[in-house]
Design goal:
heterodimer, A: 370 residues, alpha/beta, Ubiquitin-like (UB roll), Elongation Factor Tu (Ef-tu), domain 3, Rossmann fold, 3 domains, 6-stranded parallel beta sheet, 5-stranded mixed beta sheet, 8 helices, B: 195 residues, mainly alpha, globular
């Protein structure tokens, strides 16, 4: 008798308490329907309780987020106009004093519990979530792949050359949740039904490992987009573009976009840096472009050319080559704008060279890989 | 055992303070006492959980465990009750004060395994308190813990503004502080006895 009674007693007590928890959960965590006002004009009705980032996502508004809502990248910031309480300890590390004063919040950390009013850049309202078929995977170097994605739903994309999307891959192996990372579109905006991305293998990187070892042609991937402030300013200033590795992507999109639009009234210089021949790609493509487009000058440079490379082009770090051209070839009298994409180290060095050579810092636009 | 509940309340706060005389619940006591606001928040949460669980466990012990003759399962049952109460409290705090919820962090669910809570329940059972005494003892135990952590947090805040020898920084000096606080609380010992 005792042998039955004891477990029964424990289970009944646990059962009653569990029921109580479920009941409290249903009452306490039910925030009902709340209204979010965006930029004072658009209102959406959503279910409360979830973090703001995901709540907006479920309503079709996608804020950029490099880490996918885990509070580790600090990108999904938005200004919250209504009161949502003080900044949380998980937000503070990503905020400047100025942002805290303006009540800029990390949207993946704050929960929607009552009616909210927020302000986001208006172009984010045009961001959509795309479903696309992996049409082609090409190795452009040993560690960079060119991915062609054919859009399925919606089947067309409108973006400014230089913008990026948030590629998302499904869980695999030991990665239990979908991973999202930002990638610049390398194809021209004139091509509406498919986009190309350049993905460089990051050893141990959750997304690139999937792309390099698991992804097959014919698979379906999802990405919200387009995002980003890295696009060409419509001026007559001479463009100095500098890129390294997969930093090629947004610059390629920008250059082909300008060529297709028939821009002929500004000089364009493109400095592309690599270590040796095996890291260099698209050289033929840009040589061809240079031949048919007189205002465009392409300068690839190798920092460590191998003897077997038989390299007769520029040698040295791309920033050294850039400095040399500033001093010798590039006309000094014209206004200039800098467009940079690559590793933080390369960008910092290039910004330094450019400011020394007379390009105003506020005219240098860049896309730093983080 | 027949103790006046009012006496018991003061005794459990001062003379038999769970932290400073029984050294129970030290883990969160040391970790959360860096900041006065979170210390007070945790103290409040512990008081709340301790009062409710002691009363609830008294009921469970006398009306379920003893009649069914399953005293040997009391530890498991007490812990299940404590865990559920903490779970419910967690949801309530998240709803009412997200900032407190975030600053308590992992220590909120860890109240489940805060030995002060189970300790008070077990003292209640061993000392054979009646329901009113248990309720008062749970409340007093919690208030005592709250008082102790708030005092420690205040002392640590003072210490932060003073030069401390490198070898004593952080936990080391906190332990010394707690030792001295315990001695100070021993001064109350002769006034009331509840053992």
């Amino acid at each position: 008798m005792q042998i039955l009674l004891a477990p029964l007693a424990v289970s009944v007590i646990s059962g009653v308490l569990a029921a109580l928890i479920v009941l409290v959960d249903a009452i306490v965590n039910n925030y009902g329907e709340v209204t979010i006002t965006i930029n004072g004009e658009k209102t959406i009705k959503v279910r409360g309780g979830a973090p703001l980032l995901f709540t907006l996502g479920s309503a079709g508004i996608f804020l950029p987020s490099a880490c996918g809502g885990r509070g580790s990248c600090g990108v999904c910031k938005a200004k919250v106009v209504s009161d949502v309480g003080p900044h949380l300890p998980t937000e503070i590390p990503y905020m400047t004093q100025e942002e805290i004063a303006k009540n800029i919040r990390l949207t993946c950390q704050i929960k929607v519990k009552r009616d909210l009013a927020i302000e986001i850049p208006p172009e984010l309202l045009f961001v959509k979530k795309f479903k696309a078929l992996v049409e082609k995977i090409v190795d452009v170097t040993y560690d960079i792949k060119e991915l062609t994605l054919k859009l399925i739903e919606p089947n067309e994309i409108e973006f400014k050359a230089g913008q990026y999307v948030q590629l998302r891959v499904p869980p695999y192996d030991t990665i239990k949740e979908p991973v999202e990372r930002a990638y610049s579109i390398s194809s021209s905006p004139s091509q509406r039904d498919r986009i190309e991305l350049l993905i460089r293998l990051v050893p141990g990187g959750a997304l690139t490992t999937y792309i390099f070892h698991h992804l097959k042609e014919g698979e379906i991937l999802e990405f919200p987009g387009p995002f980003g402030e890295f696009y060409v300013r419509d001026t007559k200033a001479t463009m100095i573009c500098v890129a390294g590795g997969s930093g090629m992507a947004p610059i390629k999109s920008i250059l082909f976009d300008l060529y297709e639009k028939g821009v002929n009234d500004r000089e364009i210089w493109y400095f592309f840096g690599a270590r040796s021949r095996k890291d260099l790609f698209y050289v033929e493509m840009f040589r061809e472009l240079e031949e048919k487009w007189p205002i465009f000058h392409f300068i690839p440079a190798l920092s460590d050319p191998l003897p077997e490379d038989e390299w007769d082009g520029e040698v040295g770090l791309i920033t050294q080559v850039l400095e040399k051209y500033f001093q010798t070839v590039i006309p000094t009298d014209s206004a200039k704008e800098g467009y940079l994409c690559g590793s933080p180290g390369m960008i910092d060095a290039a910004v330094k060279v450019m400011t020394q050579c007379g390009v105003p810092e506020e005219k240098i636009y860049y896309d730093k890989f983080a | 055992m027949n103790v006046d509940p009012i006496l018991l309340l003061f005794a459990s706060i001062f003379t038999s303070n769970v932290v400073l005389t029984n050294f129970l619940g030290m883990c969160s006591y040391i970790s959360i006492s860096k900041d006065l606001v979170s210390a007070s928040g945790l103290g409040m949460a512990v008081t709340f959980v301790m009062t409710i669980t002691t009363a609830l466990n008294w009921f469970v012990y006398h009306h379920i465990i003893v009649p069914l003759n399953i005293e040997y399962l009391r530890f498991i049952i007490f812990i299940i009750v404590i865990a559920s109460v903490v779970q419910i409290l967690e949801m309530l705090i998240d709803r009412v004060s997200p900032a407190l919820y975030m600053s308590l962090g992992i220590f909120l669910p860890l109240i489940t395994v805060n030995c002060a809570i189970l300790g008070v329940t077990l003292f209640m059972q061993i000392r054979n308190y009646n329901f009113i005494q248990s309720l008062v003892y749970g409340l007093g135990g919690g208030l005592g813990w709250w008082l102790a952590i708030v005092s420690l947090a205040a002392i640590r805040k003072k210490i932060d503004n003073n030069p401390v020898p490198p070898g004593l920084k952080g936990t080391a000096l906190t332990m010394v502080t707690i030792g001295i606080m315990a001695m100070a609380f021993m001064g109350f010992a002769g006034m009331i006895r509840v053992q």
